[in-house]
Amino acid sequence: MAEEARKLTGTEKAAVFLRSLGETDAAEVLKHMTPKEVQKIGQAMARLNNVNRLEVKSVLDDFVSTVEQETGLGIGSHDYVRKMLVGALGVDKAGSLLDKILSGGNTNGLEQLKWMDARAIYEVIRLEHPQIIAIVCSFLESDQAASVLAQFPERDQANILLRVATLDGIQPSALTELNDILEKQFSGSSGGQKTTVGGLKTAADILNFVEGSVEAAIMEKIKESEPDLGQGIEDLMFVFDNLIDVDDRGIQTLMREIQTDQLQLALKGADESLREKFLKNMSQRAAEMLRDDLEAMPPVRVSDVEAAQKAILTVARTLSDKGEIMLGGSGGDDFL
Length: 336
Prior knowledge:
Helix content: 55-70%
Radius of gyration: 22 Å
CATH architecture of the largest domain: Orthogonal Bundle
Low-confidence stretches: 71-76, 100-106, 187-195, 329-336
Order of helices and strands: HHHHHHHHHHHHHHHHHHHH
Mean pLDDT: 74
CATH superfamily of the largest domain: Flagellar motor switch protein FliG, alpha-alpha superhelical domain
Oligomer: single chain
CATH class of the largest domain: Mainly Alpha
Number of helices: 20
Number of domains: 3
CATH topology of the largest domain: Annexin V, domain 1
Distance between the termini: 44 Å
Structural class: mainly alpha
Strand content: under 5%
């Protein structure tokens, strides 16, 4: 039987390409990737079995074709990177990443933090000024930043997040100084363009990953001191009830990735309309069983319901990042 090439995702193509390079060369390439990119590609490399010659050839042909389209490596590289990221991620998602890549600022120290666990990051920055802590949190992935924020005493959490929300870019000299501070424990240079980090959306993204009761306490403190700012953050947050705006196909994709008992617990505290959204996307038999289970379900702790909802939202965001579903933000027509 003739070999056939499977349709591979971009991550899978990268995995095939790296496997074809050999361990030493692949390791050199991986050094230039972020922790999450290494994790995604590593998982893809582990999953891919029985890659045939036709698939390898197809991946290598794609790579050669892409390289040949560049008249010279390094010539017009900023435009190439910009077009590539915008094409892959869309204008909104690519924006902040482009700022970090093309700004000319040195973020070596900050990049090293991304490889550390939340407790270790906390130990590095806990004695720094709250503004420095806010900048660090803004550079981290939202879920990682939320874990770091959780390490701080409750009295400090709202202050840090408030500073994240009000950040309006960092001058290159300040960015260099921050890296100097970080690299004392693990070189700095300046460019001419301010690096965009922080802001309301960053604060909202971080809060999306914070445990429910802690999230409520932080928002209460922010609204006490800055009501308008607090409302702005809240408007940009994607919460469980916002899943009502996901289309039916997206809901079906999401349900394939979560456990039924987890969904049951999450729906215990959901609006009736959101319950029906999930139920109508199940088979009739599965929907009837879930309805019966919900009716017979004894009282549960609010914290358990919130934990289940947060877990489902984490899966939803992962699927959104992969482009498999689209999440509609609560703040209007924007998309996460």
